[in-house]
Amino acid sequence: MPPLSNLKIAVSLSFILFIAGCHSPTDNQNLIDYNAQFPKISGGTLINAMTGEPSGLISMIAGESASSAISSNIFNSLLKYDKNLELEGDLVEHWDISTDQKTITFKLKPNLKWADNNPLTSADVLFTWQAVTNEKNASPYASDFLLVKKAETPDPQTFRVTYDQAYAPALDSWAGLQILPKHLLEGKDLHTTAFARNPVGSHYYKLDSWKHGEHLKLSRNANSVLGPARIDNLVTRIIPDNSAQFLELMADNIDLMGLDPIKYSRIIPARPELQKKLALYKELGNSYTYMGFNLKHKPFDDVRVRRAINYAIDKQEIIDGVYLGLGINIASPYKPGTRWSNPRLTPYPYDPAKARALLKEAGFTDSNGDGILERDGKPFSFEIITNQNKEREKSAVLIQRRLKEVGIDVQIRAIEWASFISRFIKTGDFDVVVLGWGLGLDPDQYNIWHSSQQAPGQFNFIGYNNPKIDKLLEQGRLELNPDKRMDIYHQFSATLLEDCPIIYLSAGYGLTAIHKRVKGIDDPAPPAGIGHNSQDWYIPQSLRRNEISAH
Amino acid sequence: MNTQTTLFKKALSNPLSLVGFIIIVCVFLLSMLAPIVAPYDPNYIDVKAILLEPSMQHWMGTDGLGRDVLSRMLYGGRISLLVGLVAVGISTAIGILLGALAGFYRGWVDTLIMRIVDVMLSIPSFFLILAVIAFLTPSIINIMIVIGLTSWMGVTRLVRAEFLSLSEREFVMASRTLGAKNSRLIFTHLLPNSLTPIIVSAVLGVAGAVLMESGLSFLGLGVQAPQASWGNILTDGKEYIQFAWWLSLFPGLAILITVLGYNLLGEGLRDALDPRSGTNH
């Protein structure tokens, strides 16, 4: 045998050994007991994924969830919500409300610093308020802050705002405004500044690198105003497709992702190897799905028709069939179990007989015996439109079937999001929509229900106009006493339920899978959700990924 | 025996195109008989039977709303075939008309029509269709029309070329000399003699249209819920591909096999038509 062949064999042998060597860590991983006790130490990297890449990290300009998901780790606000959804100071130590309820004075914590070591003072807060209200910046969040008549900084640690009249959602709005550094942004155009891609903040993390289309890496900010976070690096990978994200989760390349009900209750439980390494979390979601009527179109202006349709739809069936039971039947537009949700209200039950009776009362009869009701010779037929969201499409199919049973003919159309908004919602060119609303933490829903909010692009696109509701919404904005405010919004929910401008279909749960290497997560989730203490999450040394392979 | 029948006979003597022919016949029969062979109502929702694996009760499993996939596949086949045939009908009709005009009258008519063809061919047809559908309401009828209106160019070129060469042939010249009218020349001489290549292109066109409809439905711009089509069953399956493989596999296979069937038959017909293909008449 010529010597060359020996070399070949040696090379291929070492290659085999190399492959075998590569394989062993995975084998080890299967043996790791993730449920053992581990010491609470700092360090490590947490990798998650998002579907869309932020356009920039100044969230008041970007106005999108992708941006604020990242920037909320970089910037602080004046206030924040604690785990029980009560307001507490973030940058401020305490705040006072004047007796006439029109002036709020914020006192900043002492010795605050930006990540670049410059001091953070009330001048930065004033600058941020000026930026968000500056017409040139066209911030989508401006309206709350335009109500501030006067903003002043008596000293570097004090920031005072005065409103024309008491404005109850004010504190919530300050909890949502991320404070920007004046010394880096003064005189710059916020739409074009390089700061949006290279921000300097004050929170737990700072931007380390941003690889366009691939990932954003945040690393710990040594100057963090709230003290250090435990995990060193947060890497957010851009993976536009949900199924691709799930493949990455299964392959151990990301640590957490939001799940849909099928993944949560069917796919993961069916696979022992996934169950072994993934912990599942369920928390009340921050949104609900509804079916909304275009109240300017006949016959939806008739409350009997709206109620009839509500009785004809089996909401529990939608929760079971579409959300696999992972949803709640609601009767008010608030997160169930919070103080704003009215516990005395009950959802419309499924009662087709009552639906038929109400429709008959409204003048609908099946005069030609084709199974579809008519009024004035015209069949009761309408189109449900929704965006291309699987859950909403499925809900619409279930609704279609139930309405057919009481003699209403329904067509369904799923439309791509951009044209859905511009061609149908903004123009009011629709009969019925199936959509969702996010639930803010403040009960004020003026821009969704008040009759003044019907211009194209505004949120009252169903054309709801009820003087009683208008009045309650106006009162609710002026009332700062939490108990009185609660009464107002309980009345508001009751009136809304009775008038039925929309049908609540379900409030889904927020479902998350997190790799078991991540420890320190509150389970069960507190009202604020599992993310509230993410700065205390930690990854034990022995469970960390090989950092090189992690990016 | 006329030329078309001979052509088919010759094509079917080729085993591959025979397979294609059998596939098409089977798909046709199954879809036409869907109301009889389908075990369930394709739109019957059973929220207690969501995403069941294939079993004796549900041969192809159930989908995200507990509907029987086999039944939906059978009814979906009707949509795919209907769209394929009608769209090709439309495109062939337009193609013959314009091709005949261009090839018969020549001159500026020919130049104008052929430039229109060039312009249409320069636009990627799938994106053109996407744009048009985005403006219209997505529905079966619109899809058939739009696919038809954007795929006639090949037929036009084919017919024009046939007409150009046929009108130089002796029998046409003779007929013209005898004083035959243009309509007689076109309908009794030129058109019947160009029919064979048109049939080949139509058969291949059906495959393209079936694929196009599946693509559009997959993107949510095709057939609307709750109606089934192979494309939208495939979309439903996309999300659960690691788990509910049956939702992706069966419609994918159906599209594959059907398109393959049309292509095999089309290729066979083309070979049979080609005088260089070797076999004797």
Task: Describe it.
The complex is a heterodimer of chains A (551) and B (281). Chain A is of the alpha+beta class. Chain A has 18 helices and 20 strands. In chain A, strands 11, 12, 13, 14, 17, 18, 19 and 20 form an 8-stranded mixed beta sheet that branches. Chain A has a 4-stranded mixed beta sheet with strand order 1-10-9-8, with no helix packed on it. Chain A has a 4-stranded antiparallel beta sheet with strand order 4-5-7-6. In chain A, β4 and β5 form a beta hairpin. Chain B has 281 residues and is mostly helical. Chain B has a single domain, classed as MetI-like fold (Orthogonal Bundle). Helices cover 72% and strands 0% of the residues of chain B. Chain B has 12 helices and no strands. Chain B has helices at 3-12, 15-32, 34-37, 69-105, 107-122, 125-135, 140-149, 153-166, 170-177, 182-218, 230-238, 246-273. The A-B interface holds A 242-243, 246-247, 250, 260, 262-263, 266-267, 270, 317, 320-322, 324, 388, 390, 393-394, 396-398, 400-401, 411-414, 416, 419 and B 43, 45, 47, 50-51, 64-66, 134, 137-138, 220, 224-226, 236, 238-243.
The Cα radius of gyration of chain A reads 27 Å
Total beta-strand segments of chain B: 0
The CATH class of chain B, by name, is Mainly Alpha
- Count of helical stretches of chain B: 12
Number of strands of chain A: 20
Largest β-sheet summary of chain B: none
Which superfamily, in CATH terms, is the homologous superfamily of chain B?
Answer: MetI-like
Number of domains of chain B: 1
Mean pLDDT of chain A: 89
Distance between the termini of chain B: 12 Å
Overall, the morphology of chain A is globular
Q: What share of the residues of chain A lie within helices?
A: 25-40%
CATH hierarchy: architecture of chain B: Orthogonal Bundle
Coarse structural class of chain B: mainly alpha
Main beta-sheet annotation of chain A:
8 strands, mixed
